[in-house]
Specification:
Elements: H1 2-13, E1 15-20, H2 24-39, E2 43-44, E3 53-58, H3 63-74, H4 77-82, E4 87-92, H5 93-96, H6 98-107, E5 113-115, H7 123-133, E6 137-139, E7 159-163, E8 165-166, H8 177-181, E9 185-186, H9 189-201, E10 206-210, H10 227-235, E11 242-246, H11 255-263, E12 270-272, H12 280-285, H13 292-305, E13 310-317, H14 324-337, E14 341-346, H15 364-389, E15 393-400, E16 410-414, E17 419-421, E18 433-442, E19 445-450
Parallel strand pairs: 1-2, 1-3, 3-4, 4-5, 5-6, 7-10, 10-11, 12-13, 13-14, 17-19
Antiparallel strand pairs: 8-9, 15-16, 15-18, 16-17, 18-19
The structure holds S-adenosyl-L-homocysteine, iron/sulfur cluster (SF4) and FE3-S4 cluster (F3S).
Length: 452
């Protein structure tokens, strides 16, 4: 009896800590890993130095992201030396990149398990084998294993991430994603419907469909289905929830999807539509396959059909050959569209991509200055949009400030993508949809209260 109790006590004390870099794909992959560990009796700890299992889920979209991840892993070497039984695991996009994998093999011998994005579905099996044998496992495979998803644990409050596709076929010339996430694969619609149905039954109020280019959903499946048809099917699932998706490539956003958002209350009136540049010349060099004009026409169409649609975008400053004139085109596009929000990045050279070989690299100081200008311009636009919101009401999902962490104050996330900071007393509305009245803004951050 006593020994049984001891065993139990040991199981309860086993802990894991996951450090996640990069996009929502990685956030969701980390949830899947956490689910496997929880099923084995591990509980989460925020103290990596005293954790039994430590996982770094890495990103290599820009050089800085990769350096940050590798730096964090390297700084763990001392902890691993002090606590050799700590199982140290590296997964994600960095190991899937050939040169980085070699680096991990060569300079990071203290890491116990290395898995890439293509064999992450093997995590469960690999972890169990390692636990039994303690044999170091590092393997990267060139093509994805086609195993079923199993997300048994979620960490984003009332939001559930649901993969609808993996990989990317677009090969934008700057981007490493097609090389580290492989070719585009759509998930079978019935699997997606089953997962969304289960999430809604479990009480999730927001479902975010994930894919690098959700608009090309369905290509290559045996059944004849596209993204708009998938959205319509999902909307038929009964329940009080809303649907978001990311990311939409402007070249593939169809009238069918826009109409679907316009007609269906379950779909959030919000689209993240990365433009990357406002210069047609640079867009061509980026292989984005749309022009400044066609992007602006698309925005016009969205606004006509969904007048209050929230819009956000990504921009890259300092792509090779970007002149001052090209950058002015980007600024003027940002001014013209008045996005609710933009993310601006300095171009980062990723070995293996086409853009890494292009001439006319832009100096780092110029890239920095351009990003600064973009941020300053957007700040102005966001403040003027914030002023227009005062006195208006928005339907919103009430969440905590930082996901579902205990200490965060409640915030309202409107259907059109606005974040409104609430009073702590509005906590009673957590994870419900409410009308939220915007009373004003504090340095550009909207503040309000639940009620008309
Ligand atoms: N699939 C998404 C983007 C995923 S990457 C899409 O097509 O929009 C997220 C963002 O990182 C991109 O939108 C782009 O703005 C930025 N990005 C990608 N590669 C980059 C690079 N080499 N340098 C700088 N920013 C980059
Ligand atoms: Fe990268 Fe372009 Fe694919 Fe997005 S669509 S992941 S930017 S290659
Ligand atoms: Fe980064 Fe991989 Fe996502 S490179 S942005 S974590 S797909």
């Amino acid at each position: 009896m006593l020994s049984n109790l001891k065993k139990k006590a040991i199981i309860i004390l086993m802990t894991y800590h996951i450090v996640t870099y990069g996009c929502q794909m990685n956030v969701h992959d980390s949830e899947k890993i956490a689910g496997v560990l929880k099923a084995r009796g591990y509980s989460e700890t925020d103290d990596p130095k005293n954790s039994d299992v430590v996982i770094f889920n890495t990103c290599c979209i820009r050089e800085s992201a990769e350096a940050r991840a590798l730096g964090a892993i390297a700084s763990f070497k001392g902890v691993k030396a002090r606590r050799p039984d700590t199982v140290l695991i590296v997964v994600g996009c960095v190991p899937q990149k050939e040169d980085s994998f070699e680096k991990l093999q060569r300079d990071f011998k203290f890491v116990d398990i290395v898995l890439g994005t293509h064999n992450l579905t093997d995590f469960e099996k690999t972890f169990d084998e390692y636990s039994a044998s303690k044999n170091r496992f590092t393997e990267i495979i060139p093509k994805a294993l086609n195993l079923k998803e199993n997300a048994s644990y979620r960490t984003s409050g009332a939001n559930a991430w649901v993969n609808i596709m993996y990989g990317c076929n677009n090969f934008c010339t700057y981007c490493i994603v097609p090389y580290v996430r492989g070719r585009e694969r759509s998930r079978a619609p019935e699997e997606i419907i089953d997962e969304v149905t289960a999430c809604v039954a479990d009480g999730y109020r927001e479902i975010t469909l994930l894919g690098q280019n959700v608009n090309s959903y369905g290509v290559g499946l045996d059944v004849n289905i596209n993204f708009a048809a998938l959205l319509r099917k999902i909307c038929e699932i009964p329940g009080d929830y809303r649907i978001k998706f990311m990311t939409s490539n402007p070249k593939d956003l169809t009238d069918g999807v826009i109409d679907c958002i316009a007609e269906n209350r379950k779909l959030a009136d919000y689209i993240h539509l990365p433009a990357q540049s406002g210069s047609t010349k640079i867009l061509a060099a980026m292989n984005r396959r749309y022009t400044r004009e066609s992007y602006l026409t698309l925005i016009g169409k969205i606004r006509e059909k969904i007048p209050h649609c929230g819009l956000s975008s990504d921009f890259i400053a300092g792509f090779p050959g970007e002149t001052d004139g090209d950058f002015q085109d980007t600024l003027s596009m940002v001014r013209e569209v008045r996005f609710n929000n933009i993310y601006s990045f300095m171009f980062s050279r990723r070995r293996g991509t086409v853009a890494a070989t292009l001439p006319d690299a832009i100096e780092s100081a110029v890239k920095k200055q351009r990003v600064r200008e973009l941020i300053a311009l957007q700040r102005e636009i966001s403040s003027s949009i914030a002023l227009e919101c005062a006195g208006k009401s928005y339907r919103a999902l009430i969440e905590r400030e930082h996901g579902d962490m205990r200490e965060g104050n409640p915030v309202a996330l409107s259907d059109c993508g606005k974040m409104i900071f609430l009073e702590p007393t509005d906590e009673k509305y957590l994870h419900t949809f409410q009308n939220v009245f915007v009373t004003g803004n504090r340095s550009g951050r909207l503040v309000g209260r639940v009620g008309e």
